[in-house]
């Protein structure tokens, strides 16, 4: 196979590209190889056809989350979460992925979800309205604090299993983009959460946690 490639290259190069096998007089300068011929030779020297896109690892740092709900739209039960420090550097605190949800609270003023992957909890998310009588609607909720529930104050709790990330301050916010309920079986459980698409931002002392989640039942 290697011999056929060399013969093929020589055929091309003899057409005036390199003069493969041709003599070059002492007072003449051999023409340089064009870029495409050099690329072919480099690929052969590397032992094959060259690296595929799948073999090239992307080592660039992740871009800060832009706050868009589209990152979690149309993906089923999905979470996208990043941490950004004061210098602007970002890192994933949870691999963007599809999760199984456990619904811990699903009343009209408090929605609490746990994201599971492979049977293990990976992230915990709490969104709490100001009072039990305040019904969640599509819209922006701020400021929200992590030490909830406190009557008259919004609550936002974002925690991750491996990172231990958590913070207590009143600089959080979240925005509900889609919220749908279905009828429950009894008067004590009149509604079940059916769809919940939310973006969130928890601004801590040294970093910011931001992302989105989508819940569908």
Task: Describe the 3D structure.
It is a single chain. The chain has helices spanning 2-17, 35-45, and strands at 78-85, 90-98, 100-106, 110-117, 120-128, 139-145, 154-160, 172-183, 191-203, 207-216. It has 217 residues and is mainly beta. A hairpin with a 2-residue loop joins β4 (110-117) and β5 (120-128). Mean pLDDT is 73; it is low at 2-31, 37-41 and 43-59. The chain has two domains: 2-55, no CATH class; 69-216, no CATH class.
- Summed over residues and divided by their number, the pLDDT gives a mean of 73
Helix content: 10-25%
The best one-word shape is: globular
> How many separate domains make up the residues?
2
Distance linking N and C termini: 56 Å
What is the beta-strand fraction?
35-45%
The H-and-E topology, N to C, reads as: HHEEEEEEEEEE
Strand order of the largest sheet: 2-1-10-9-8-6-7-5-4-3
Strand count, sense and closure of the main sheet?
10 strands, mixed
**Rg computed from alpha carbons, rounded to a whole number of angstroms:** 29 Å
Class of secondary structure makeup = mainly beta
Outline the low-pLDDT stretches.
Answer: 2-31, 37-41, 43-59
The number of helical elements comes to 2
What's the total count of β strands?
10
Mind sketching the topology for me?
Blueprint: H1 2-17, H2 35-45, E1 78-85, E2 90-98, E3 100-106, E4 110-117, E5 120-128, E6 139-145, E7 154-160, E8 172-183, E9 191-203, E10 207-216
Parallel strand pairs: 6-7
Antiparallel strand pairs: 1-2, 1-10, 3-4, 4-5, 5-7, 6-8, 8-9, 9-10
